[in-house]
Amino acid sequence: KKWFGNINSELERMKKLVDDLLFLARADAEDEVPKDYFDLSRLMNKIYDSFIPLAKKKNIDLTLDNKDNITAYGNEFRIKQLVTILLDNAIKFTESDGKIQLKLEPGLSMSQLTIKDTGEGIPKEHIDKIFDRFYRVDKSRSRNYGGSGLGLSIAKCIINEHKGSIKIVSEVGKGTEVVVSLPNG
Ligand code: ADP
């Protein structure tokens, strides 16, 4: 039973790796993803709801500060993938009893999405490199949670194809704040 469990989690890890590699290969080859107006506030509520069980499992206090009717222009599926990557990381790198604050704010031409965690933080010398493919700060440890170091390069790719921006401010031992700006139209 234990072996089957191991095989299963290894299969899941490999499936995720193949999906991530395919995403990047396609993103390199494709011209543009289809875009439309969509309700970003509603999407944020949905993502938040889907992460509650994961946060609870680690006893992390996950909160959402959202406003109604914030519209974005882009590919809803990809934006969901982007927020999922960032929230996944926040949960992975935040210890039990930590806190994660998710916030969506409207702006004149861009909406701002903030994910702030009280996790382990990222050392300054690594910040510029974490968007590189396969880059992980702690390679030995990251094997335990199945990280391949592709998440943030995919996130960056999605942000670029939406002409948005991403900024990371982090302090070791204190936490990380990721701010994403996405165009309204
Ligand atoms: P993965 O999570 O699969 O390792 P990513 O590309 O998503 O790959 O992230 C790259 C690295 O950046 C991670 O291995 C981790 O060291 C660091 N990192 C990303 N997000 C956070 C965060 N919220 N807190 C601390 N470290 C982070």
Strand content: 15-25%
- Hetero compounds: adenosine-5'-diphosphate
Helix tally equals: 6
The largest sheet, given as strand count, sense and whether it forms a barrel, is: 5 strands, mixed
Residues in helices, as a percent range = 40-55%
End-to-end C-alpha gap: 52 Å
- From the spread of the alpha carbons, the general shape counts as globular
Total E-strand runs? 7
- Radius of gyration equals 17 Å
Question: Which class best fits the helix and strand makeup?
Answer: alpha+beta
Low-confidence runs (pLDDT<50, min 5 residues)?
Answer: none
Can you characterise this structure?
With 185 residues, the chain is of the alpha+beta class. It has helices at residues 2-29, 40-57, 76-92, 124-127, 139-145, 151-161, and strands at 36-39, 61-65, 71-74, 99-105, 110-117, 165-171, 175-183. The strands form 2 sheets. It has a 5-stranded mixed sheet, with helices on one face. The chain has a two-stranded antiparallel sheet with strand order 1-3. It is globular, with a radius of gyration of 17 Å. It starts with a helix and ends with a strand. Adenosine-5'-diphosphate binds next to helix 3 and helix 6. The site of adenosine-5'-diphosphate (ADP) has 23 residues, from helix 3 and helix 6.
